């Protein structure tokens, strides 16, 4: 569902075969009914400002999670039994800073995408993503340097982030020492 005028509540529990759910730009949506019965393969929650914390804490996602706000992510991380899936994407984040919840288990995250975010810097605690293999950063114009990265990282892509791209240039860029040993580097 994208950009629909919706009621405050939506019932989806009867959709027992549902594996993928995308909710974008739903300004009125406050709750979803029937979530505990669903095991989703992937979930996207973008611009759902009224979706309540209880609802967010009931999601179970197996492979991919895309959110537009660290608030949504933190509500999910606070839920008992929630496991961060291997693919995590933060898109369209308006916050100028972001930090990953130190107490959360990010050991399953292998691919992180930050796209069209307004943050001024990357989370300083990216090293807590101990299984991170791939990091993609695109259209984040305010990011100008990299924090310390996990040693598991094998691929970094930076698209249309001019300040960060400059910082990552060999041999004198401020961030170059942090990515010099990474096998695959892509800059556009």
From TrEMBL:
SUPFAM superfamilies: L domain-like. The lineage of its organism: Eukaryota, Viridiplantae, Streptophyta, Embryophyta, Tracheophyta. This is Disease resistance protein. InterPro entries: LRR_dom_sf (IPR032675). Gene3D superfamilies: Ribonuclease Inhibitor.
